[in-house]
Write a structure and sequence with these properties.
Length: 959
């Protein structure tokens, strides 16, 4: 996040953001620690999270938060040292209570914090007492435990909240903790600075990574600001500004200037050797030295404009000036500086400006490289906060850019047609000149005719060049827009783990409440999920998980009696499958017995006993998702109120997903949620209704069938057809949408079968246009809810298309059937249009082969055009309509493989079937052809039998 972005937040806002992040870490690791109390990884993460929160709370002046995080950190340090063990649920409950308190505190508005603290101070003190009790009880039981890093004062036989440790003492400890963190930061960054400057000193022409050095100086400056060490701040600022000036003006440094920078860095190096309690006094004592070094370093940045190499006179002047207070000359061989070395007999530490030896630096180089690599990893994983509305606008613009690229293709096609006419014009002029060859023309007529031919020829060449340039630009622009669009879509995705952070804690607390043992497993935490879907998933998954624990997982004694482990398992899995987001929630509990479910359904008078006996397993499971239905025998705070799974069903249907439940009695229960990967882009089936395109979300389509009009039956003046022994009601889609009746004359009707809840219908449409990925554009809210329509999108050519709201459409069909009689689906015969001869394009550079293929196909009644190479074939495809393409592989200009790839990637030509015919019959050649989209790959030996003809008939039918 940039400084400008950060300036929009107050310090309290930043504290809330920090708390939100660290609370997640605390919750996650404390729950993991409950299963493995001695895990060093979790304890380290807990200690660091508490330490970070303590520092953040101290900066904003929240003493209560400092108070709690301090004892939490002490507790984790004690556990790390082995003095105590967080090995009981009661201890974990105390820590979780403290985490919850910090989370609540961070959400209190700044104006209400004082009142909140006064009201809840007793809870804060009680938590502090409980955490200290965890620490002290173990230490008293094990007085030999000793750890010099453990800041705990044990006072037996006294109330724990009345220890002799004062709040001022705790503040000092906080200061020392911050100092320790500060020293760590200075150590890592100053060693990097020193190592680079020593290398530069040995080779003044060395090309340094100035960006990383500037960053190191800046980090030291930022760390010093937290502790208000103004001496360090001004030194770090001077070094940072000088390095920035060197980078900006591409200046070079001389040896004296490098020595001055090293003197400044050595201040940082020496600081690491000063005891924490003496740092402030030491900085005050050496402030004159620091000021002198800062002046020398500032001279470097000043001389960098325009050059860093001063004149001889100025160099003399500089040398004279530095003589009085010049830092001791740095050498590569130096002795290690002892800790807090006394000066004379004053008893105070002295400033030693010697740096560490290269050997010592090399000893730490590997760790520095590791830290730098770790920092780079953090930089690559860093996130920024973006307003959701702005992200939606960017997504809309990216999709519009992608749509605009599709406009170039038909424009290029129109230019190809123009070129075709231009070539025809040139051919006519040639024929005109040939026809007049026997006629005596005057000089002027001959000149006009010659000029016309020349101009037509020039126009043809210029047009061809411009078409080629346009095609190159179109491909490049389309590729760029596609990449931009995909990056924007990816920015709208979040890891699945971001939406389930509260579930482990919820299940842990609920299991404690129900006296059950449960292990919660999450698979696919890194699975990318649309942020809108992730937000909608929280409530449904909460209900399923609570049901799994309450209804599914048995008490430990019941599980042991059934031969199971006393600890149950609830598994949550997320993955991408078949272009959809698949979420599975399963448990190894008792499941649902179908007979008992039938009895419950009958007892609620939802169906008769006779009908219940005929219900299949899937039909029985569907009752679980009805409002008001519950299998619980009694109503509790957790379940039995008849709400929960119907919320899951509503959410899944809202986003266009599928939900189903599967039960294995005594083995467990599983819920399967199949959801779209993103709500921003959906896969749809485009159909034509009354001459207009409409889009049906693929996830809401049950079946797509072709129904013969002879198979349509009528009962009670309603039409239906039979599919898989089930009668499906048939209605006209145009009538439901209140559109004009189309002039439909088909014996085979395209029918889309859709359903919602218990109703299912077949919608007769005019034509199936194919599948499309559409970028969803929400409708203007001022329009209100448009019946049967959920959203809109743009086609490849920029024309709008409406996306059908299937749920609403089914309800509209119900209402239409209830109040009026529907028009019958037409049963007229097939139009003569379908009897037009099918047109084929042969692309072949060998005249013998293409003529042979043409004769074979024309003899069968097909209409055949020819193209002499790939480019000629590509131009022909864009200027005329073909039912099938037959192409060779090896051709000049554009190979057959490239031609097939172009066809299959084209917005309107990709549905044309392609047959590759080649002399190459190796398996790798065949696989290469099929991989780019060819429907058949035949060898030219197929001319000797009916293989080619059979392939053509298989793809487009008889002529």
């Amino acid at each position: 996040m940039s400084d400008r972005d950060m300036s929009d937040f107050s310090m309290m806002d930043l504290f809330r953001m920090e708390t939100e992040t660290q609370v997640v870490i605390l919750n996650e690791n404390i729950l993991a620690l409950e299963n493995n109390p001695n895990s060093p990884v979790e304890l380290e993460s807990l200690m660091r999270a508490a330490h970070s929160l303590k520092g953040a709370a101290r900066i904003v002046g929240l003493d209560a938060a400092v108070q709690i995080t301090h004892v939490m950190e002490d507790c984790f340090v004690a556990a790390q040292s082995g003095a105590i063990a967080l090995d009981s649920p009661d201890k974990i409950d105390v820590i979780l209570g403290a985490i919850d308190l910090l989370s609540r505190l961070s959400q209190i508005p700044a104006t209400e914090i004082e009142n909140w603290l006064s009201t809840n101070q007793s809870e804060i003190d009680n938590l502090e007492t409980l955490i200290l009790a965890i620490i002290n009880s173990k230490i008293e039981a094990n007085p030999t435990a000793n750890d010099e890093n453990l800041e705990i004062e044990v006072i037996p036989d006294l109330p724990l909240n009345n220890t002799n440790e004062t709040w001022e003492d705790r503040q000092i400890k906080t200061d020392l903790s911050m100092l320790s963190l500060f020293v760590e930061e200075v150590e890592s960054q100053s060693l990097l600075l020193q190592e680079s400057l020593l290398l530069l000193k040995n080779n003044l022409n060395l090309d340094l990574d100035l960006e990383s050095l500037v960053k190191s100086a800046h980090l030291i400056q930022s760390a010093a600001k937290i502790l208000h060490f103004h001496q360090i701040i001004k030194l770090a600022v001077a070094i940072e500004n000088t390095l920035l000036a060197v980078a900006k003006y591409k200046a070079s440094l001389n040896e004296i200037q490098v020595e001055s920078l090293l003197a400044g860095v050595n201040i940082f190096i020496t600081l690491m050797k000063i005891p924490a309690t003496q740092v402030e006094d030491w900085l005050i004592k050496i402030e004159p030295e620091i000021d002198n070094i800062v002046n020398l370093i500032n001279l470097i940045s000043q001389s960098a404009m325009p050059t860093l190499v001063p004149s001889k006179a100025s160099r003399k002047k500089t040398n004279v000036k530095t003589t009085a207070s010049q830092p001791p000359k740095t050498t590569e061989q130096s002795t290690d500086l002892p800790d807090a070395k006394p000066a004379s007999n004053s008893g105070e530490p002295t400033l030693d400006l010697q740096q560490h030896s290269p050997e010592k630096i090399r000893g730490k180089s590997e760790s520095l490289k590791f830290k730098n690599k770790e920092n780079q990893q953090k930089q690559s994983d860093r996130t920024i906060r973006v307003n959701a509305e702005n992200l939606n606008k960017i997504m809309g613009l990216a999709s519009e850019s992608l749509v605009e690229t599709k406009w170039l293709q038909p424009f290029g096609d129109s230019l190809s047609i123009l070129r075709k006419h231009q070539n025809k014009l040139y051919s006519l002029l040639e024929k005109l000149q040939d026809s007049l060859s026997d006629t005596v023309l005057d000089r002027r007529s001959e000149d006009y005719l010659s000029s016309a031919r020349k101009a037509a020829n020039e126009c043809s060449h210029v047009l061809s060049d411009r078409i080629n340039e346009l095609e190159f630009f179109s491909r490049r622009y389309a590729n760029l827009s596609e990449r931009l669009y995909r990056e924007v879509i990816a920015s709208n995705m979040r890891p699945f783990a971001d939406g389930i952070q509260g579930f482990p804690r919820m299940l842990r607390d609920l299991a404690r409440q129900l006296s059950k043992q449960v292990k919660f497993e999450v698979i696919g935490k890194s699975t990318q999920v649309d942020r809108d879907i992730l937000e909608k998933l929280e409530a449904p998954l909460t209900h399923i998980l609570r049901n799994a624990l309450d209804h599914g997982i048995e008490p430990p004694e019941a599980r042991l009696a059934a031969g199971k482990s006393p600890q149950g398992t609830i598994r949550l899995e997320a993955s991408h499958r078949g272009g959809m987001l698949s979420i599975v929630v399963s448990d190894d509990g008792k499941g649902i017995e179908l007979d008992k479910l039938r009895e419950k359904i009958v007892s609620k008078e939802m169906v008769s006993a006779e009908m219940a006996a005929k219900l299949t397993e899937s039909e029985l499971m569907d009752f679980l998702f009805l409002p008001g239905f519950s299998t619980a025998s009694q109503v509790t705070e957790i379940s039995g109120r008849g709400v929960g799974l119907d919320i899951v069903q509503s959410m899944v249907q809202e986003v266009g997903g599928i939900l189903r439940a599967v039960s294995q009695p005594e083995k467990g229960m599983s819920f399967y949620l199949q959801l779209p990967l993103t709500l921003s882009v959906i896969r749809t089936l485009l159909v034509e209704i009354s001459g207009e395109p409409y889009a049906f979300p693929l996830t809401r389509i049950d079946r797509l069938v072709l129904v013969e009009t002879s198979e349509i039956a009528i009962a009670e003046n309603r039409q239906y057809f039979t599919l898989d022994d089930e009668n499906i009601g048939l209605v006209n889609a145009y009538q439901v949408l209140e559109l004009a009746a189309p002039n439909r004359k088909l014996d085979l009707l395209p029918v889309i079968i859709v359903s919602a809840r218990s109703n299912s219908y077949g919608l007769a449409v005019d034509k199936i246009l194919g599948e499309r990925d559409l970028v969803v554009r929400p409708l203007d809210p001022r329009l209100g809810k448009i019946p049967d329509i959920s959203a809109a999108a743009f086609m490849e050519d920029g024309s709008p298309v409406l996306i059908i709201d299937v749920e609403y459409l089914v309800r509209s069909t119900d209402r239409l059937l209830a109040r009026t009689s529907l028009k019958k689906v037409s049963e007229t015969t097939q139009t003569d249009e379908s009897k037009i001869a099918k047109r084929l394009l042969i692309v072949e550079d060998s005249i013998t082969v293409r003529e042979f293929e043409r004769k074979i196909l024309e003899n069968q009644g097909y209409k055949v055009d020819i193209a002499v190479n790939g480019i000629d074939g590509w131009n022909a495809l864009r200027s005329a309509q073909y039912d099938l393409v037959i192409s060779d592989v090896d051709m000049p200009g554009m190979t057959g493989i490239e031609l097939v790839s172009q066809i299959k990637n084209h917005a309107t030509l990709n549905s044309i079937p392609v047959i590759i015919v080649s002399y190459k019959d190796r398996q790798e050649d065949r696989l290469r052809g099929l991989s780019v989209g060819a429907d058949y790959y035949l060898t030219k030996s197929s001319f000797h039998d009916d293989t080619l003809l059979n392939a053509v008939v298989d793809l487009i039918g008889e002529p």
